[in-house]
Specification:
About 55% of the residues lie in helices and about 0% in strands. The protein has about 120 residues and is mainly α. The longest helix is centred in the middle third of the chain and has 22 residues, at about 40-60. It catalyses: 5-amino-6-(5-phospho-D-ribosylamino)uracil + H2O = 5,6-diaminouracil + D-ribose 5-phosphate; 2,5-diamino-6-hydroxy-4-(5-phosphoribosylamino)-pyrimidine + H2O = 2,5,6-triamino-4-hydroxypyrimidine + D-ribose 5-phosphate.
């Protein structure tokens, strides 16, 4: 959300996002970013999320090891309420096992799968 605010030059919201601890509060603030343009966000959001996760997984050895243990799998964001970053299904929903029955795009899963490949040096 911070990078979303920075992308649209909303320094006030960016600073507020840094000060709150709750991801829910950060998300609420992210929805208040001034001069937000959906098309601009969509052309930048995957890189923002990739870069943030790159920093997260390269700075935390334990998290990186967990990510590496998923080698050979497609990562899936199991979220029944998120049809963009997730698949629109809960983890316990059997439809999650078949990509054809997903209700969402799984952008986060795709990004994490690509990040893992990049960190492993795999094409």
């Amino acid at each position: 959300m911070y990078m979303k605010a920075k992308l649209f030059a909303d320094e006030e919201i960016a600073q507020k996002i840094l000060k709150v601890k709750s991801p829910i509060q950060q998300k609420v603030l992210g929805r208040k970013v001034r001069h937000f343009d959906q098309k601009i966000w969509e052309s930048n959001c995957k890189k923002v999320v990739y870069d943030g996760n790159y920093a997260k997984f390269t700075q935390n050895t334990d998290l990186k090891q967990l990510l590496m243990k998923t080698k050979g799998t497609t990562l899936v964001e199991a979220s029944p309420t998120d049809r963009i970053w997730g698949v629109g299904l809960a983890e316990e929903d059997s439809r999650i096992l078949d990509r054809k029955t997903w209700k969402g795009k799984n952008w986060l899963g795709e990004i994490l799968t690509q990040l893992r490949k990049d960190l492993l040096g795999v094409e």
